[in-house]
Amino acid sequence: MTTTDRPSGPSAVEAKLHVPADDSRWEAFAGRYRALLDAPLDAAGVPDWLTDWNAVSSAVTDVAARLSTHADLHTDRPDVQERYQTFVAQVLPQVERAEQALKEKLLGVPDFMPAPDFALNFRRMRDAAALYREANVTLGVTHEAQKNRYSVATGNQTVSLNGETLTIPQAKQRLDSPDRAAREAAWRALSDSNMGVADELDGVMLDLIATRWQLARNADLPTFRDYQWRALDRVDYTPADCAAFHEAVRDEVVPLAARIVRGIADGLGLDRVRPWDYNRNNLLDPQGRESLKPFRTGQELETLAEAAFESLDADLAARFRQMRGGLLDLESRPGKMTHAYCQYFPTRNEPFVLMNVVGTAEDVRVLFHEVGHAFHGFYSGDAQPLAWNRWSPIEFVEIPSMAMEFLTLDHLGHVFTPEELGRYREKQLQGVVAFLPWAAQMDAFQHWLYAEAPENVTIADLDARWLELDRTFHPFVNWDGLDERVRAKGWQYYHVFQVPFYYIEYAMCYLAAVGVWRGAQTDPAGALARYRASLQLGSTVSVPDLYRAAGVEFRFDREHIRGLMAFIETQLPG
């Protein structure tokens, strides 16, 4: 049964996301916070006090997550949008103030020494408390409202193609066609749709830049990069390390990507690679075959995924079956945010996956990716009673998802024929190579925007810088004679608006995921055991220690990248 033909009445998904009106008001939490603030506290009483704090903090996070996800599923419903924005504006600022007061109370307890599994988060609380500014509480409401304008604009975006009205994911599927004319038509229709909202998104971005500069100034920091570096708790690497990564990708990965793309173009008899010939998420088939379409509906995708998890590991399969009870919303439809993500409801230790599937093999990969995140939530939630200790720092958090893309490769015999599975595996490896230049470009753009560009940067400046970077990291795509404004707006991307500076982590974790897979080729049981053990650690150990637990190194330097690219080349056919 698809999302669109469920029986009338509240669906399982809607039931999971339902928040009673009284539960979304500040009054639902105020008394519990006040009790924590008023309670006498000494070092011996901290563990029980933390348990009570964890309960109310988790309850707030749970409500926020459900309201946010519901808003993303209904971008075309003003009542749903208003309810979420009201919570953001009226409840979250009060919560932020209360959480700061509790941090200060904890930090002031004489002679308190955190247990080893809480030491890192105690340090993070100390650093977060130092970054806190009352002025940024109010400004944070503005920031969230500005980000939501992006979600609404893109969530309601449609594409007109050959007399059809399509969602963005449905239109992007046409870019996989072996028919070059069909690809070009889809690309031009998508470009027209994107340009139709470009001016609106330009305005949102200028507002966000102004707000982000003010957040940094309020915190007495010179740039928003400095502010976000602290907010994201980046303590294991520096901006200089990121710049070295950009250069390494330019020199070690871009040439390999160019060779792969040129080989595909030669196979198809293309004299040049145009934008409609290059989809980094799903490179064209060099023999001109149709893209793999292993399912038709979200329900079919769920069924084939469950069988893959059954083959891989019984407990993983059981977790996925639990998700099929209202914790998956996979179908693409109008009025639904076009991105894919995994949300988390801490009070019930339940992850939730939102996607926009259209029947492609790429959807299969993305589902395994997002469900890998879900496994991270499940396992860290089982092992770590305190919500602060669940999940992991963002430098690790994509390893559970990206490694799952690889660990499932040998468990898809029920989905693909051997020949099709070979194609799927090749796409997976090509996808790593194609992704790294994009990740470096995205990260380099944000370093420039938030640390090098002036505060009064213009949209023309943003467009020009993106063009410069795109020519550096994607020189193999030919734009001659095309409207460069379309290319220049490539920065109008989800993460730039919604989660600034969260992107290089995908590259770090993709490199690590390749390492996990390389280990699984000789010791599959051991690789899976290390994978699960690292997820259970949650946020209780450092990033390098998490990587070691997964059986890999925390590295993204030139030598490491060069070695992994050489390994990938040995795994590609030909």
UniProtKB/TrEMBL annotation:
Residue ranges crossing the lipid bilayer per the database entry: none
CDD domains registered for this protein in UniProt: M3B_PepF (cd09606)
Name the UniProt record assigns to this protein: Peptidase M3A/M3B catalytic domain-containing protein
Stored PANTHER family: PROTEASE M3 THIMET OLIGOPEPTIDASE-RELATED, PUTATIVE-RELATED
UniProt keyword list: Hydrolase, Metal-binding, Metalloprotease, Protease, Zinc
Pfam families the UniProt entry points to: Peptidase_M3
Recorded family membership: Belongs to the peptidase M3 family.
Coiled-coil annotated residue ranges, if any: none
Domain Peptidase M3A/M3B catalytic: 176-562
Superkingdom, natural source: Bacteria
Transport keyword on record: no
Keyword Protease: yes
Cofactor names: Zn(2+)
Gene3D superfamilies per record: 1.10.1370.30
Cofactor binding, per record: Binds 1 zinc ion.
Organism: Deinococcus caeni
